[in-house]
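Convert to structure. Protein one:
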Amino acid sequence: MSIRLGYQIANFTYPGAVEDIFPTVVRQAQDAERSGFDTVLLMDHFYQLPGLGAPGDPMLEAYTTLGALSGLTSNIQLSTLVTGNTYRNPSLLAKTVTTLDVVSGGRAVLALGAGWFELEHQQMGFDFGTISERFERLEESLQIVTPMLRGEKPDVEGRWYRAHETLNSPQLRTTVPLLLGGGGEKKTFRLAAKYADHMNIIAGVSQLPAKMQALEQRCEEEGRDPATLEASFLTQVIMDPEPARATQLFHTYLRRNGIDPDTANDDVLAAQADHWFVGTPDAVAEQIHDRVMTTGVQGLLINMVMNGHESGMVQLAAETFAPLVT
């Protein structure tokens, strides 16, 4: 299993009507496959996230969409970034992902996280709880999901979940990769070191060197060779051959989130720059090489929420970033 270059579709607000949404998603996934991305990943949310749009903006359910994409693509891996553990019973989740693996011909990746978007939980009736409780639930879930993915029958009587000699058939393979996503150095990284094949780090780019050191330390504490846990970094990109348009799109994003780029102070703009790469393809590639790929991560996951849906943008991204991860 390897995720070297992944394309996350994090936005479903496109020009046109509702019936145009899925064809736009399909085109991005197919362009990603044709142009050299190895994985396409969808948001596993039911409302759009703060910073990316309003809660009521369009948001497709992830596994229904991935199942449909499996029949419209051939080689690219299919995943979420990441599945919210609080939304799904772990036995059902394992069944869902292994079914996706069967129908896609062995291309599913299970990506999992503790869950964090409280508004979804409140309005949709999912238990949210404290952060400690969510991580307790995540670890119990992993004790069920992991063996089910490996063809085993878990027997767990936990505080949150139960599974008794749980069956999972059919399975195309007992090596469905498991990815954990997040930035928590103590809890998330420990669980990744204990259970996962891949850790996707979500953090500001300035934090990445320290995050990589912490991940290595958690591996050593778990008695695991850090080299056996693949790591990637998720970043947001606004890229255009015309630098003025890239800047314009970034300023549009800032204004949507209540930040006036003409009057904001340097600290506010620096905080935004810690999460976005903006500019021409060459400029963005150079920044990502210098600030991300030199830290030791093996994989790069990007989203382009402002213009990734535009024709040619996914292919341009692949051409720009593939040399950084080979």
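Protein two, convert as well:
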Amino acid sequence: VTLDMPAAELLIAPARPIVLAPRLPGAPVARSVAPGAPELGVMLPYSPLHHLLLADVGATLVMTSANVTDEPIAYRDDDALARLQGIADLFLVHDRPIQTRTDDSVVRAVPRRAVLRRSRGYVPGALALPGDGARRPLLACGAELKNTVCLAKGSRAWVSHHIGDLQNYETLRSFTKGIDHFRRLFAVDPEIVVHDLHPEYLSTKYALDLDDVELVGVQHHHAHLAACLAEHGEAGAAVGAIFDGTGYGLDGTVWGGELLYGDAASFRRVGALLPVRLPGGDRAVREPWRMACAWLVASAVEPPAAWRPIAELARSGLASPWTTSMGRLFDAVAALAGIRAEVNYEGQAAIELEAACDPSEPGAYPVAVGGTPLVIDPRETIRAIAADVAAGQAAGAIARRFHRTIAAATVRACAGLAGAHATEVVVLSGGVFQSRLLLESVSGALTRAGLRVLVPERLPVNDGAISYGQAAVAAATR
């Protein structure tokens, strides 16, 4: 990798996070390490055992977490021996048991410091709650994916280590144990418990099962907006472009390409990505070609013959809820460009789409932005991409034109809404803004337009910040 000074400073900082840095062409690293990604994660040893191991080996090591895909990491020797027996050839154990299951933190230095996973090294450091803080002790249960929890009392909030995706029993156990651990550690007995609006999230069900507490439901994208404002100590209202994969909307549909105006206490949805169908529901998340099919149908482009059964789902609406998800639009374009039709992990299609971008490509696609509420309508974009694919245009050119198109549409939308609401503050948050290219393009253009751009810096731009945002909303309204 190539490290600039900000990245090098993060690498040697006491927290010792994993630092994402650009992969050098021809780097002597196996292709199976972070395949399709433009960056590699590098870290220095942070424990005495690491130093001993590295000193004995005398070379750079490739390391990965001790877990099976979609399961939490094993931190007990007996658990590791049982779950990883068919994967690991040897086990290095120690006579000092690990007390808490904690992943490594992951950060990126540019265009500004960004924490992609806040865990070991940064937790359990407190974050401030602005204004009067939490007048009553509270627990915020976070989201379903990239879950964290947050306890708050007075002016301080404690966001937990990265817990992960609450989709199996082991992670749910880690979630409940993490809450118990933080309650003991900070002597917080919650009177208010905050949860996402999605009724099927396991974090929501946990909250609803509690007795003798006041329950507060917070909309997912409002939590993103509130988290960023609170982190920066911003009390006033702002326009927020909150782009991610999935969030339960106030109307019961799947939101994910949201333009909001508000503060921690309240918000209004002032715009969104054009809604399309999500064919097969959650299955479309794992199979981006389904979203490609849905966007072709919405754009009046005939899908390939093999996709026609799914096209009928999209047309009929059967098992295909509406979604405004920006993350699913990126998935769709990755599939249309031939980059990724199915994914093995969340965000893979978008990561590989960004990695494929040809930096020499100067073009962009047409896109419609306008109306009240404002709509970002990329149907012309999809038609132009389909024409490029049919003409044999390179995937790298398509990917770069698409990123430039969405960046320009976001800038137009945010600048227009900021003017309409007489604010100079714009928040950019949600997992889609983990794209370095998109974030740099949008934040740079908005700054040049005279707006003040706020981006999460001490917390992740993804759902790892949701619990803190939930706490900020509850503190502002209770």
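The mean pLDDT is 95. The first helix runs from residue 5 to 12.
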